Amino acid sequence: MTELKRFFQDLTLGRPQNVGPITVVPLISDQHFSFQKPRHEDVSNRGYGNLMFKNSTPDPVLVPAHTVYMTKRQSQDHATMEGLIVKKGETLDYCKATCVQQSTGGMMTGSQEKVETTLPIILRERAFNKRENTGDSTGYGRLWNDITSYNAGYGIRGSGGGHYEYFYDAFEKTMDEFVAEFELVYNQVGFIVFAKNIVYGIERFPSPGYLKSYYRSLIKGCYGAAIIDLLRQADELQLKGTINVPVNMSGSVRELKRNLARANERFDGRVKDVVTELIFGDRGKFEKSAQGHQTDFMLFENDFFVGNVLVQADGYPYFTFVAREAQLKGVRAGREFKI
Amino acid sequence: MKDFLELVDFDQMPDLSNFVNSLQSIARATHHEDKDEVEQALIKRHQEMFLADRGVYTLLLSLAGSENHITTGVGLLFGLPDEGLNMPKSLETLIIKDLLKRVKITQLLRFYVDLADAKINNNRARKVILRSFFDAEEKDLTWWAVKYKTKLRYIMNHFVGNDQIGYVISIAKRYATERMCLPDDWAKVARLLFMSKEIQGWHLETIAFINNVNGVYSSPLFRAFQEAKRDITKGASLPPEVLEGIRSVYHPSVPHAEVLKLTAKSATKQQTVRKQREYEKAGVKVDANWDSMAMHELIKIVYEWHKDKKPLPEDIMTVLHNKAKKVGGELSFQAIKAGILVDNSFSGSGDQETALNDPISKILSLRYALQEYFHQQEIPFVTEFVTQGRNNYGLPVVAGETDLATPFIDLVYEDCDVIYVLSDGRDNAPAGRLQEVIGQLRLIKKLPTVYHFNPVTGGESIVKLDKDIPTVGYAKAEGFQRTVFASILVAEPKTALAQILNDYKLLAERSSK
Hints:
By secondary structure, chain A is an alpha+beta fold. Helix content of chain A is 30%, strand content 25%. In chain A, a hairpin with a 3-residue loop joins strand 18 and strand 19 (305-312). By secondary structure, chain B is mainly alpha-helical. In chain B, 56% of the residues lie in helices and 5% in strands. Chain B has helices at residues 2-6, 16-22, 35-52, 54-61, 67-79, 89-100, 105-117, 123-134, 138-147, 149-160, 162-178, 183-192, 201-210, 220-228, 240-250, 256-262, 269-274, 276-281, 295-307, 314-329, 358-377, 405-413, 433-443, 480-491, 493-512, and strands at 338-342, 381-385, 418-422, 449-454, 471-473. In chain B, helix 15 (240-250) packs antiparallel against helix 16 and helix 22 runs parallel beside helix 23 (433-443).
């Protein structure tokens, strides 16, 4: 059995930030790994269901799980199904990618302008479950039905089925506003996102610089999609801070200063307690594990999360754990998982 | 003129406060909105105010904090010459000319090209635009001619008009090739170009040059342009990008670095800063003159050079300090003890692609100006930061969550009677905490006077700290008093607008003399 806390040895929790129902807790570490993000001009494909990553950087390259590359209808948009690394000077020919734009054809070239984002949280569990290419003629389209039903859930009825970009285009503004609310702190390498006592995801990256370069793609595409879900359920959920700790009424400035510090301390402490319980309790224990597409990666799953971890001799430069759909449906239905 | 303002029903006008705040915005992407959204919202606001009262709208344009607002506004005035006109047209034209003087040549040319594309060509637009070029100094017009040849030709052809442009070019061509021009032609061309100054030979040479006439030019820049095609070293006085164009066509074997070396003296400050890496690679030492740059632009450069681990230019901080003293000297605030709250949280780093470090640079520029003002007035002050720490060039780090409440209560605790909050106004640790603290201070009657100055002013409504605390959006520290004047305008619109109107009346009198 593997416990989540194994991956947290060098991590401490930063001060929580919250807006509406969502709270983000920074993960801080002074242990940094020299991985780089793929340069967009080094991403291409040679066929449907394929993505090629050239490493033209002086370091190894990490491609995070469920990254989507969109090309504004110049070629078919594709997504990765798990984390990947590309060694220095090498080119990775990844044949288990999926198409996320059903009725657009064409190959992706390095010179095409690309938008990088991440699959919405609900599609990430489905991508985890369908990470293997079944090999039949529609293997590269194995997320199309999921995307179609996902879009339909939001009333998006674009023609041609599995088009992730319909969702992205429809909600980009809301997702942008959401991402702008959260800010990076010193030595931040990752974060935990939670709402209504449910951990939505836990993300760790090799270095603060890497996180900064990928932050927008991830928090907008993956967790920004979650906020849309929560906003749709606003009446039921009563949008407000997840943990509301007001400042006690004060009769003087001195007392207010003291009460403010206490309220902030209580707020931070309670958030951290909740998060610690959520990830280090039973929910953070994994009976099932498997090897990823590359031997450097391990895959984990339990009733609550699916996860992808990059294992190196000196630590865990990258991991991602996202909540299963059933957990999120609990939030959607207004049920809270009390600790 | 007095009557025009007397007749305005300010209760029926759109919200002046929102419009005046939005006039300080720069229509480009922020950490929170993309460029198109900002632009569309900006245009909509202009149209609403224009339709409500053209005269008030025209006077308000004088409070514009950025060039985008001026061109948007003047575009409306040019495009609808008589729609709702309620002040003398000559006065409106004077205001237009005054506004256009504040727009940089690159943006001005883009604006005129847009007007030409929109087929705007009325008598007033023709007169103002052609005169802005042909009444200019020789060094300016000839420089623009070599640098923006195609745009200038397009603008001139459009505003002179199809029926006359052939004649003007033929006269100019004859002058440039044969040095011949009859006095009647000379005078007619001057009339067609609406010139108020006497026409000179270099005016005709300029027209010939932008129309690609292979003449015998006396203007040194036009000669350099021609001779550089044979010998690249003759083009040292040309703008770098113009000589680079000549190099790539006529001297492809000469390296690009040679162009940088030759034109180091003619490169503008912005070019030397923007292409610093290229100049260094080519082994060219360039002297940057920082004086004409705004304070926040200088601060952005310091952040960028710190990131690139480049040595800090010796004179930049001195220039910044002198500018802060000058801008601070123009401010006017009353306080017994002032508090400045600087929001240097992560969102101060702005849009990572289009406006990196824009908000924090604007916040710091105003902070320096305020501090200088308090020094000059001998008003004690305290400055608090949202995130502690400085980089080794002395600038605050830009990182972390936004907890405004803690430094705010520290300033109150320090007995500051006026607090200036310089922030994008997004409190997230936890959300809304500052508002809660302000509410409690109000209840116990200990809330100081608070001003919120917000550098992030997109097309959408500006983010406020609290509904009862005045928020003023601003685009730069320079001219900040004008921005504050704008907030007075919100409280006393008639008085403030009458003051602007009076300023323009004085300008009109001076111009007529």
